[in-house]
Amino acid sequence: MLEADRQARVVPGSSWWVPLCLLGLAACGGGVGGDATAAPSARVSGAVDSSLIDRHRERANAVHAFAGFDTTSGHAVATAPVQQDNGACTFRYALAGLPDGPYTVALTSDGGATFRRRANVTVGGAAVAQHFTPARVVRVGPGREFTHPDQVTGRVRSGDVIEIDAGVYRGPASTWSTDHLTLRGVGGRAHLVAPATISNRKAIWVTAGQNIAVENVEFSGAAVPNLNGSGIRAEGRDLTICGSYFHDNQEGILGGGGNVLIEFSEFARNGNCDDPEGCAHNIYIDHTERFTLRHSYSHHARIGHTVKSRARENYILYNRIMDETDGTSSYGIDLPDGGLSYVIGNLLQQGPRTDNPVILAYGAETLDNPSRHLYVVNNTFVNDLGSGTFVSIARGSTATVQNNLFVGRGTAVAGPASQVSNLVTNAPNFVNIGAFDYRPTAATPGIDRGTAPGRGGAFDLTPIYQYVHPLSRQVRPRHNAIDIGAYEYDPTARARAAVLGEPPWPPWLPAGLRGAAPTGAGRGGVALYAPAGPPPSSRAR
């Protein structure tokens, strides 16, 4: 049934806060945005549906408070950025410092030029919650009017949220041509299994509309005669993938236009090189304007590359990209046409069965993109092949390779590059290298031996996060000089944890960003600590 959501109501609720650095109000580096967390001073707070924000211009999303009801004129008396919950596809805001009185609370996704939603609230006494919900939700699932997503492709309108109940949905393939859609699994991931014959000869889903977001959806089994059957074929502009899982397809995702953002997502066992005209890959982004991959896990690509992008700009930030023990991928990261590219804070591993001895390749085919600048900063590379090249850079490029930890035998950097504060070792003394847990110990080389990366063009190269497995992140601690590699070792936090039984949060981190107890263990034995946030049931899975 097509159901219109109720308008948000003002009800008592909790409040949220994050450090100014993570709000984009002070210099951070290595990315933008932060995790929503509690703060006692917030007077008005609430959730913001992801369909109402611009996922590709994060700093343009904010909530303003204006004095009086039914007005957005004059200067706002308070402004709060919309912040993403850690490891999730959910967002919220918190307005602090509001005196008692009436206000218009307004949501903008274009920096304040216009307001998409607004509501009247009265502040007085207890904090209040004002949520911003989508205009219309289309629900799909067993027992509903629509039992398969394909049944609503021709019924949806621009701005709709399509909520798909968790479960397995087998065929047919679907094409989404309407602009501004959010396709969301709820109650867990919605698993789309490819039919035996994919009618569009491309993918389980073809995203042909502009500004489409896919959240908490799983894709598997895509196969077509030309050997590049994909979970998603991205044909429209500005695609967001969040909290999703692509596995056992001929190609994980293929295409792209405008801006492509992939976050908190996993890609596994996609790819092949059976077609003489070219290979298929875990991730293959075509000639788009900007590609961002962050806080994600791409692994065990089958012969093809684990990540491949021909985008003009690439932001590959805080990911785990690996073959592990039995993976057979070619390049870990392939940027075949160059482009303005930032590779920061990643865990990159090449396994003993790799199909190609290069981990990161830049300009391997052409340098046709307008920019030929590559920045490889604070990554941890592990080569379990025993030979090969960690970073290969084409002649004619301009590259900065700084603060990287290279573990294993092979050539660290081949090609033109400014190399600063990198370290090569065969004895990394990680927490558990055999389980691919590359967190440092006190004996790990490179502690306090890095140098400040500065800026690469307009982008701050200093890492602000570090990857937490699986599919999450944490704020990178700051302790003395920056460490070499993708993780920062913090002896004071670990010593305090041993004595007091506390999680190893750095001492400068605000209390609101510290979890009270571990929420569980990720792969590789990494303990996961949840910052103050929504209950686990509301997070992406």
Task: Give your account of this protein's structure.
The chain is mainly β and 541 residues long. The protein has two domains: 2-129, no CATH class; 137-500, Pectate Lyase C-like. It is built from one helix and 49 strands. A hairpin with a 4-residue loop joins β42 and β43 (437-440). The longest helix has 10 residues, at 491-500. The radius of gyration is 23 Å and the shape is globular. It starts with a strand and ends in a 12-residue tail after the last strand. The model is unreliable at 1-33 and 495-541 (pLDDT under 50).
CATH homolog superfamily of the largest domain: Single-stranded right-handed beta-helix, Pectin lyase-like
| Structural shape | globular
- Helical/strand content category: mainly beta
So how many helices? 1
- Per DSSP E runs of 2 or more residues, the count of β-strands stands at 49
Radius of gyration: 23 Å
Brief digest:
With 541 residues, the chain is mainly β.
Keywords:
single chain; 541 residues; mainly beta; Pectate Lyase C-like; 2 domains; 22-stranded mixed beta sheet; 49 strands; disordered C terminus
Give a topology summary:
Blueprint: E1 2-3, E2 11-12, E3 42-48, E4 62-67, E5 78-81, E6 83-84, E7 91-96, E8 101-108, E9 117-123, E10 128-129, E11 137-140, E12 161-170, E13 174-176, E14 182-193, E15 203-207, E16 212-215, E17 217-220, E18 230-234, E19 239-242, E20 245-247, E21 251-255, E22 259-263, E23 266-268, E24 283-285, E25 290-294, E26 297-299, E27 307-309, E28 313-317, E29 320-322, E30 333-335, E31 340-344, E32 347-350, E33 358-362, E34 373-377, E35 380-383, E36 389-393, E37 398-402, E38 405-407, E39 411-414, E40 418-420, E41 423-425, E42 430-432, E43 437-440, E44 455-456, E45 459-460, E46 465-468, E47 472-475, H1 491-500, E48 518-521, E49 527-529
Parallel strand pairs: 3-10, 11-12, 12-14, 13-15, 14-16, 14-17, 15-18, 16-19, 17-20, 18-21, 19-22, 20-23, 21-24, 22-25, 23-26, 24-27, 25-28, 26-29, 27-30, 28-31, 29-32, 30-33, 31-34, 32-35, 33-36, 34-37, 35-38, 36-39, 37-40, 38-41
Antiparallel strand pairs: 1-11, 2-10, 3-7, 4-5, 4-8, 6-7, 8-9, 42-43, 44-45, 46-47, 48-49
